[in-house]
Amino acid sequence: MLELRKISKHFNGKYILEDINLEIQSGEIVSLLGPSGSGKTTLLNIILGLTKMDQGKIFFEGTDIGKIPMKKRGFNIVFQDYALFPNLNAYENIVYGLRNKKVISEEELQEYIDFLELKPHLTKKIAELSGGQKQRVALARTLVTKPKILLLDEPLSALDGVIKESIKERIKTIAREFKLTTIIVTHDPEEALTLSDKILIINQGNISQFGTPQEIINQPSNEFVQEFILKQLQIKKQNIYNLFGENYA
User: Fold this and answer.
1) Dihedrals phi, psi of 6, to nearest 5 degrees
2) pLDDT confidence of residue 201
3) I need a labelling partner for 218 at 20 to 30 A (CA). Which of 44, 105, 234, 243 fits?
């Protein structure tokens, strides 16, 4: 379990995050959802250890990890731009994080490659890959390090259509099959509702609501949640109706 207690972060006297309390159970998929500038990416980076919090504590499996450096936390992230090395081919990118450590066998490595259907693309340079293929390479590079928590920053924002749905399903399958706690930053309510076990909605550095997709759709906790979720989903209403039924309005 990952537990955040009273996490705060400010910059130039302005709070980016204020008094964030959160519990994420092992194996859950949790989306951090909110408008641009709400603090969701800052919170993701604090969990990763990339950004220092000003106040609060972070516990992972009962251990206070707030002062443990990023490299020793055992978490890993897929950045929004994938951060792949253009001078390396797909395979070299996948195994890059294994240079100084042996955390998986060759058989396990091949299982990840096969699972993400990357075998035909291993010798391709990054510029030769499609957006979906780049996303899968970035996922493979992260997964082969066997992270304790998988962090994803806007993993679907550069994708559309069938590719977007395919990656979404792969993320859910990865979390389920590997029992991997997964935390996702997104600004898209439909992504959060269809991908997550639970959603943390952040507005102006504060928690507006934390709950299951059904709870957020059927019992929005305040006017902001109702406006942000429901109004943005009107054009996609049928998709959400199919998931949550007649209670959606």
Assistant:
1) 50, 45
2) 96
3) 44
Q: Which CATH superfamily is domain 21-52+150-249 in?
A: P-loop containing nucleotide triphosphate hydrolases (3.40.50.300)
Instruction: Provide the terminal-to-terminal Cα distance of the chain, rounded to the nearest Å.
Output: 34
pLDDT 10s digits, 187-216: 888 889 989 999 999 999 999 999 999 999
Looking at the chain, the number of H-run helices and the number of E-run strands are 11, 10
Q: Are 201 and 33 in contact (CB under 8 A)?
A: yes
Query: Which two tokens mark 190?
Result: 């439909």
Distance CA 131, CA 187 (A): 19
Is the CB of residue 182 less than 8 Å from the CB of residue 47? no
- C-alpha 227/C-alpha 95 separation (Å) is 44
- The two beta strands, 181-186 and 29-33, are parallel
Q: State phi, psi for 124 to the nearest 5 degrees.
A: -80, 145
User: Which residues lie across from 121 on neighbouring strands?
Assistant: none
CA atoms of 16 and 27, how far apart (whole Å): 28
Going from N- to C-terminal start, the domains of the chain cover 21-52+150-249, 84-147
Predicted structure pTM score: 0.89
SS (H, E, C) 16-67: EEEEEEEEECCCCEEEEECCCCCCHHHHHHHHHCCCCCCEEEEEECCEECCC
Give the distance, in angstroms, between the CA of residue 173 and the centroid of all CA atoms in the same chain: 14
Contact 26, 179 (CB under 8 A): yes
- 3 state SS of 81: coil
Residues in the chain: 249
